[in-house]
Amino acid sequence: MSGKLNPENKRYRFETLALHAGQEPGETGARAVPIYATTSYVFKDADHGANLFALKEFGNIYSRIMNPTHDAFEKRIAALEGGAAAVATASGSSAIFLTLATIAQAGDNIVSTSYLYGGTFNLFKVQLPRLGINVKFSSSDNPKDLAALIDDNTKALYVETIGNPEFNVPDLEALAEVAHAHGIPLIVDNTFGAGGYLVRPIDHGADIVVHSATKWIGGHGTTIGGVVVDSGKFNWNNGRFPVFTEPSPGYHGLKFWETFGPISFAIRLRVELLRDIGPCANPFGSFLLLQGVETLPLRVDRTCENALKLAKWLSNPASPAAPYVSWVKYPGLESSPHHANAVKYLRKGQFGGVLAFGVKGGRQAAKTFINALQLASHLANVGDAKTLVIHPASTTHQQLSDDEQRAAGVEPDMIRVSLGIEHIDDVTEDFQQAFEAVLAAGIRGAGIETAAEADRSLAKIAKPDASRDASPDRSGNGCFCLPALFGGKSGKASSSSANKRE
Question: Which segments carry the region annotation Disordered (predicted)?
Answer without folding.
Answer: 483-502
